[in-house]
Amino acid sequence: MLPFHNTVADDFTEVNDLIIRQLHSDVGLVENIGHYLIEAGGKRLRPLLVLLSARALGYQGKQHLDLAAIIEFIHSATLLHDDVVDTSTLRRGRPTANAQWGNAPSVLVGDFLYSRSFQMMVAIGDMDVMAILSNTTNVIAEGEVQQLINAKDASLSEAGYLDVIRKKTAVLFAAACEVAAVLAGGDATVRAELREYGLEVGMAFQLVDDALDYKGDAETLGKNVGDDLAEGKPTLPLIYAMSRAEPHERDLIRHAIEQGDASQLQEIVAIVEKTGAMEYTLNAAREAVSRALAKLTLLPDTPYRSAMAEVAQFALARDH
Predict the structure, then answer these.
(1) CB atoms within 10 A of CB 184
(2) For a FRET experiment, which of 16, 72, 167, 266 has its CA 20 to 30 Å from that of 51?
(3) Would the pTM count as exceeding 0.85?
(4) What is the pLDDT of residues 245-255, one digit of tens each?
(5) Domains of the chain and any CATH numbers
């Protein structure tokens, strides 16, 4: 666990127990894959933001635990589906579920996690919560389809890229914070500000994630370096590098994107560094974190608010 998890350590323990209980199924393969994915760990930032946001607003009940588990199930479902679409073989330092069991079981267990999350939403019985989370899952699906369409498109603009990461990543961070505000009885202003905080944290998280694909290592990242390039994903480091590179360098990057070819990864990493594309991407993440921190000023000055600030800063400073 990271230091900011300790602020809600008891809540987090209860959420983990709840997740295990809710993974129960009469079908053994469902439980096996579900447990494999959940027990791989991860940073659990999205459920953490539910817990911190609720507590920061003075919430004293227990339904924030259910919401945290719901958010984690939605996220886990997207991971299962993503790894199939991307034909990924490594996540969180372990073989992906599709590498272990195959594509069909991974997709179907992802569907199970989605449907289980909606069963849990119904049990909470709050239409605002259901509206936020159903809209969010819809937007995530749109973002994933758009990313698929954009694959191997070397002409993608920075605006187009930012729109995709907002949909496929940032909106779930935003929803995690907003549903907590709903649960805590926050007014429209509180809901909007916390949603924007979550959105900016999510944007920073994905920007850094995309930068790490060109500067990290597989052991630290828990995934294969260069995966984005091998999948033909035109992320911001490449988009910016192409706008500043020499013609032959631009052609090299364009070819790699269009062919999904990571064989010249080191040459492309050198171009990304030389053109300032890495710093440009990280600076965009810094600006997102700065906007996120500004949204926290409406919250009381408590350890929960401090932890939320630490989460935002971690999204920027992380190396995995």
Answers:
(1) 21
(2) 167
(3) yes
(4) 999 999 999 99
(5) 8-317 (1.10.600.10)
